[in-house]
Design brief:
By secondary structure, the protein is α+β, with helices and mostly antiparallel strands. The chain has 2 helices and 2 strands.
Length: 129
């Protein structure tokens, strides 16, 4: 990588612009937001071909995304930075309160009632306090 993170991936259009100031994040004005790392997304398909199709995603989630998110959360909590979790879930068992995109057939056809196990955050990533 040439240069620092401030200039390494710039468009040529900004090549002559000065480097931006260092970012200062205040603990009281900053949060880590963890979105949709739920049990349903780590369930392995029963059919072998479908399981193989999803393998790269699941391997990346288990080998990179989840461990790094665990580290990020631990570091944030040590520093006193708030950690906030968001997940897709509906309040009704039949999902009538879902968004239109969640009701569509296909990949986004999600029915995740809030109390069902598949809608819960994975065990490694749980809110505290």
């Amino acid at each position: 990588m040439v240069g620092s993170w401030k200039t390494a991936f710039r468009s040529f259009y900004y090549a002559q612009a000065p480097e931006p100031e260092d970012i200062v994040l205040s603990v009281t004005d900053t949060a880590v937001l963890v979105i949709d790392i739920q049990n349903t997304y780590l369930e392995e398909p029963k059919e072998e071909a479908e399981r193989e199709r999803w393998r790269p995603f699941h391997d990346r989630m288990r080998g990179l995304v989840i461990p790094n998110t665990v580290k990020l959360i631990a570091d944030a909590r040590t520093r006193g930075v708030e950690v906030i979790f968001a997940r897709i879930a509906c309040l009704t068992e039949d999902g009538r309160d879902r968004s239109l995109s969640q009701k569509k057939p296909g990949f986004n056809s999600l029915l995740l009632p809030k109390d069902r196990d598949d809608s819960q955050l994975i065990p490694e990533l749980q809110p505290q306090g």
